[in-house]
């Protein structure tokens, strides 16, 4: 059974940092591209970032470029999102998601972790 | 403002069919066949319902179907059931050379 479990969310002050983790099981993690997608309270889905299977290539939405860093540790089956210079508008539930091979379809999602940026 | 345009809400009675539209441009929906649809119940993670415009994941009900014409993709749900009440999001890639995904603003489906 495929499972993605996010952790690391919480309350942080504006300008602060947070690192999210997503531990996966049930599939060969090192073979798949992975992504982070967020959802602000009461709002729609917003793609945040993606990382290639090897970790060599990364992609970011303009709204987080230069502030967020996506990475992965294939030996630990874990995806990360380092978030710096956080703003109130970064408040959201952050989901990790797996790409269907060779596509941009997201076929498995975690349950999400809430990040709240507030003073 | 979302990259892809969806109606904010649609509704239908049990047993009826409804269609949700998703309008983009030739740079996303119209240019590629990487259109997906996701269902999201309150407080839950999104679930992939349709991929490559028309494909259903294994085990998914054939009451859900997808199509595309030009820059507009559509999700049709036939034989509406109470459990279909949820938010639905379309998505597409923006550029064939990247993994950048764009989503629609979401459509709230109400089963009357």
Mean pLDDT of chain A: 96
What gap, in angstroms, lies between the N and C termini of chain A? 40 Å
Per DSSP E runs of 2 or more residues, the count of β-strands of chain B stands at 9
Helical coverage of chain B, percent range:
under 10%
Tell me, what's the shape of chain B?
Answer: globular
Note the run of SSEs of chain A as H and E: EEEEEEEEEEE
Structure explained in plain terms:
The complex is a heterodimer of chains A (119) and B (112). Chain A is mainly β. Chain A has strands at residues 3-7, 10-12, 18-25, 34-39, 45-51, 58-60, 68-73, 78-83, 92-99, 106-109, 113-117. In chain A, a hairpin with a 6-residue loop joins strand 5 (45-51) and strand 6. By secondary structure, chain B is mainly β. The chains are: A mainly beta (119), B mainly beta (112). Chain A binds chain B through residues 33, 35, 37, 44-47, 50, 52, 59, 61, 95, 99-100, 103-112, and chain B through 2, 34, 36, 38, 40, 44-48, 51-52, 57, 89, 91-93, 98-106.
Defining traits:
heterodimer, A: 119 residues, mainly beta, 7-stranded mixed β-sheet, 4-stranded antiparallel β-sheet, 51% strand, B: mainly beta, 6-stranded mixed β-sheet, 9 strands, 0% helix
Helices and strands in order, then pairings?
The complex is a heterodimer of chains A (119) and B (112).
Chain A lengths: L2 E5 L2 E3 L5 E8 L8 E6 L5 E7 L6 E3 L7 E6 L4 E6 L8 E8 L6 E4 L3 E5 L2
Parallel strand pairs in A: 2-11
Antiparallel strand pairs in A: 1-3, 3-8, 4-5, 4-9, 5-6, 7-8, 9-10, 9-11
Chain B lengths: L8 E4 L5 E6 L12 E5 L6 E4 L13 E6 L2 E6 L8 E8 L7 E3 L3 E5 L1
Parallel strand pairs in B: 1-9
Antiparallel strand pairs in B: 2-6, 3-4, 3-7, 5-6, 7-8, 7-9
């Amino acid at each position: 059974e495929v499972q993605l479990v996010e952790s690391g969310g919480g309350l942080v002050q504006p300008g602060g940092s947070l690192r999210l983790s997503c531990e996966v099981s049930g599939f060969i993690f090192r073979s798949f591209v992975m992504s982070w997608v967020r959802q602000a309270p009461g709002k729609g889905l917003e793609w945040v970032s993606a990382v290639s299977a090897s970790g060599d290539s990364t992609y970011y939405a303009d709204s987080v470029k230069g502030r967020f860093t996506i990475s992965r540790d294939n030996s630990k089956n874990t995806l990360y999102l380092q978030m710096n210079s956080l703003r109130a508008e970064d408040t959201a539930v952050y989901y990790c998601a797996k790409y269907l091979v060779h596509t941009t379809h997201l076929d498995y999602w975690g349950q999400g972790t809430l990040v709240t940026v507030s003073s | 403002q979302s990259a892809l345009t969806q109606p904010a809400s649609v509704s239908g009675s049990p047993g009826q069919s409804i269609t949700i539209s998703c309008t983009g441009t030739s740079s996303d929906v119209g240019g590629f066949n990487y259109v997906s649809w996701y269902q999201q119940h309150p407080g839950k993670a999104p679930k992939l319902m349709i991929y490559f415009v028309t494909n259903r994941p294994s085990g998914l009900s054939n009451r859900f179907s997808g199509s595309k014409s030009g820059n507009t993709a559509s999700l049709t749900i036939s034989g509406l059931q109470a459990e279909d009440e949820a938010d639905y999001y379309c998505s597409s890639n923006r550029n064939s050379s990247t993994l950048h995904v764009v989503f629609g603003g979401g459509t709230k489906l109400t089963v009357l």
